[in-house]
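Morning, I've got a small favour to ask if you have a moment. I'm working through a protein record and want to make sense of it properly. The fold is given in discrete form, as structure tokens running alongside the sequence. Can you walk me through what the tokens say about the fold? Thanks so much in advance, here it is:
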Amino acid sequence: MIEIKYFKLSMMEIIDHLNKVKESIRENDLNRLIGLIDNSRRIFLYGAGRSGFMARAFAQRLMHIGYESYFLGETVTPSCDKRDLIIIVSGSGKTISSLCLAEAAKEMGLKVVAITSHGESRLAEISDLTIIVPGKTKLVERESYAPFTSLFDISVLSFFDSVSSEIMRRKGINESKILERHATLE
């Protein structure tokens, strides 16, 4: 039988990393994010590649909680204006499509939130709020047992689900309410 050494090392690295992320998120930033979400007519999310999957997951969570939320680029995405919020996920903060959308959103007067590992990036500069979620990105900052961008992706998913939990508790929304909004044809 072959030992599953790297599986265990990767899992431990991910668990340890999530504990560091939990401690690194600033409470003020979290409250500002929730305030922006609450005070927006619609919430639009975007990310390229795996970051896009994390953004899509948060768009779904927000819809389940009762917000009008969309992933940019889908054919059913409505128009947006200055009453709306865009949340862009980019580990590097340098993804071309993310930068283009952030710049276009700013020109239209939307509030822009960046979720990134790089607070000095162009995306962070453009944004009204930047939340630093530590994690190894495609820039390959360090060696890791977790593959490629996994530490960033898993951290962002955990961050978004934890934000969702905070919003649910503040609004008194339980899982039975989410079940009412969950897809019935799947």
